[in-house]
Each structure stands twice: as structure tokens, then as C-alpha cells.
Design a protein that fits this description.
Layout: H1 3-17, H2 19-26, H3 31-43, H4 49-62, E1 70-73, E2 81-92, E3 98-106
Antiparallel strand pairs: 1-2, 2-3
């Protein structure tokens, strides 16, 4: 996947969220990221339902954790540790790659 494909996928995802939710995401992006995504959205034409579905399936399978979830994390050869997720943030990095930042509290 090229950098432009990643930005386009991020743009498709944001457009699928709806105006209020997308605005919340944009609040957490840098001005450069907002500009790049805005330009990509403005250039986009019709997007097939199959493409939107593909983007959403990939995103939800990779970023399905939510605040309040209890999960186990695994260290390098260490025992598993149970944590509660306090905050989960998604970032659009250079190249349009989506990454997540997780803040958790050990239980």
C-alpha cells in the first residue's frame, strides 16, 4: 500500500464517521495531517461501497479496543498483566498510516 492509499483510506474512514465524530478526530491531528486529509477528501469522487466496507473492516479489526475495556498485555517473556484501558487514541501518521496510543491502568 502506498502512502497515498493510506491517506485515502483514512479519508474514507473519516467520511464514514459523520460530521461530529470526524470533527472530534480532527481535533487530535496536527495541522499538517488535517490539511493533507482535507485535500484528499476534497479530491475524492465516488467511493464504492466495497471500498468503504474494506476500509471499515480493516480499521475495526485493528482498532477495536475502547475505554473501559479490560485486557491482558504480554511483555517479553513476562507474565501477562491485566489492565483497564483509560484512553485509546487513533493517530494518522505520515504516510496515512493509522496507529493507536493506549493509556492503561494495571489492575
Amino acid at each position: 500500500m502506498s502512502d497515498n492509499d493510506g491517506v485515502q483510506d483514512a479519508a474514507i474512514f473519516l467520511m464514514s464517521l459523520g460530521e461530529e465524530e470526524a470533527a472530534e478526530v480532527f481535533k487530535h491531528l496536527s495541522p499538517k495531517e488535517v490539511q493533507r486529509l482535507g485535500e484528499t477528501i476534497a479530491r475524492m469522487r465516488a467511493v464504492s461501497k466495497e471500498k468503504v466496507d474494506d476500509v471499515l473492516v480493516r480499521f475495526t479489526s485493528d482498532y477495536r479496543f475502547q475505554k473501559g475495556d479490560e485486557v491482558y498485555i504480554h511483555g517479553n517473556g513476562e507474565r501477562s498483566t491485566r489492565v483497564r484501558l483509560i484512553d485509546v487514541r487513533v493517530h494518522v501518521r505520515d504516510g496515512g498510516k493509522l496507529t493507536r496510543e493506549i493509556l492503561a491502568m494495571k489492575l
